[in-house]
Amino acid sequence: MRGAVRPRVAVLISGRGSNLGALIAAARDPAYPAELALVLSNRADAAGLERAREAGIPTAVVESRPFGRDRAGFEAAMGERLAGAGIDLIALAGFLRVLTEGFVTAWSGQMLNIHPSLLPAFPGLDTHARAIAAGVRLHGCTVHFVTPGVDEGPIIAQAAVPVLPGDDEDALAARVLAQEHRLYPAALAWAASGLARLEGGRVAIGAPMAAGALANPLPGPLLGSAALPTEMP
Known about the structure:
Blueprint: E1 8-13, H1 18-27, E2 35-41, H2 47-54, E3 59-61, H3 71-84, E4 89-92, H4 101-106, E5 111-115, H5 127-134, E6 138-145, E7 155-162, H6 169-193, E8 196-199, E9 202-205
Parallel strand pairs: 1-2, 1-4, 2-3, 4-5
Antiparallel strand pairs: 5-6, 6-7, 8-9
Helix pairs in contact: 1-6
């Protein structure tokens, strides 16, 4: 990462950019320790691109479809856009492409993802339906550094929600999404400020950890609008 005071972040999206909206809101705070410098999509019709433009954030499109199975070519084109924007960190926010080992390794410790489950439980797709089917009592979301294994990266932070009697997939998804919108800006702030970093395949947190049941491992107060209470509601 370059020695910038506010690391430059690229948010990669494929769709509506729900978590992008939460990151944009957090980054409006002058105290937020990262700058959203680029929103890049592999789909020209991604609704999140317009959200970024309305916020005054530069956008780029690298269509994945024309590359077919040439994943390396697609990622090379994407890498040119990232390099041109001077990007320090990448935040995946609904980016529906599996990245190659080469690309992931090049951004080791500098690329984050948010996943709608309490990893390592329920990696992959359809997490909410699978959680209900499994009968778990807690579900949630995870922010982790990206590694070549899908949804296997070292965990930075998690937020838990109860699975309530009568929940269907939509109800549980909405409850988890509300926590995603709180957790991702906080975790990105920690990574940008160096308080969460990858060391020896694990995440080192450079601050006292919160304690107690259902505690978010990112204790408040956190920088600017990314502050989170230590106990989840």
